Amino acid sequence: MTTVIADHVSKKIKRADVLNDISYTFYDKHIYGLSGRNGSGKTMLIRALCGLIYINHGTIKINEKVLHRDISFPSSIGVIIEKTDLLPEYSAFTNLKILSKVKRVASDQDIKSAIERVGLDPTSKMPVRKFSLGMKQRLSIAQAIFEKPEILLLDEPTNAIDKNGVELVRDILVEEKERGALIVIASHNQDDLDILADTVLTVEEGHLVGNDEK
Ligand SMILES: Nc1ncnc2c1ncn2[C@@H]1O[C@H](COP(=O)(O)OP(=O)(O)OP(=O)(O)O)[C@@H](O)[C@H]1O
Fold this sequence. Notes:
- The chain has helices spanning 42-49, 92-103, 108-117, 133-145, 163-179, 190-196, and strands at residues 3-13, 16-27, 30-35, 57-62, 65-66, 77-80, 151-155, 182-186, 199-204, 207-213.
- With 214 residues, it is of the alpha/beta class.
- It is globular, with a radius of gyration of 17 Å.
- It binds adenosine-5'-triphosphate.
C-alpha cells in the first residue's frame, strides 16, 4: 500500500503563509482533485509533497519515510509541474531515454509505449522545440507515467491539450489509478475534477478547507 501523509504542514514565503497547517492522508488506487483559486496554494502543496520545497512546520511521510529526513524525494513518483523541463533539441524518445538513465527501471519498450499512449509517435525524430504546447504537455504526461510510479502528482495535466487528447489523458489517468497509483491532480478544469476525482480537496489561502468525498 502507498501512503502520503501530510501532518500539520506549513510553509511561509516571506511573511505569507502559502501552506497553513495542512493535515491529510492520501492513499493508493485513488484520484484526489485539488481545487481552488489562483494563488491558493495548490502548486505549493504539490511541490511540498514531492520534496521540491522545504516546509517550515510539520512532516510529510511517503510510505512511513519522512521527506528531507529519511529520504530526499519519493523514490517512485511521476510529476508534472508547470513548465516541466524537457530538452528542446532532442526527440520525445531521447528525452525519456535520458530520464530513464537516472533510475534504470524503464526499458525502451516502456518508453515507446508511454509515448504511444499519449498519442505521440515514438519513432519521430522531431525535436521537442518544434512541438506545439499541447504536444509538449502530452510528452509531460508520458514523462510522468513511463516508469509506472506509485505516486503521480500532476499540476494542470490537461492544460493546452485538445478535446480528443483530454479524453485520452483522462482514460490514461483512470488506468493508472486502476494499476494502483496514488494520484493528486490540481486543476481549474471542473470537468477533470468531476470526471476523474474520487475526492475533491479545496485549497483556500493555504488551508485545506473542503473534503468532498464522492
Ligand atoms: N516563488 C515564489 N515566491 C514567493 N511567493 C510565491 C512563489 N511561488 C508562489 N508564491 C505564492 O504562494 C502562494 C500559492 O501559490 P501557488 O502557486 O501554490 O497557487 P496555485 O493555487 O497553484 O495557483 P494557480 O491556480 O494560479 O496555479 C501564492 O500566494 C503565490 O503568490
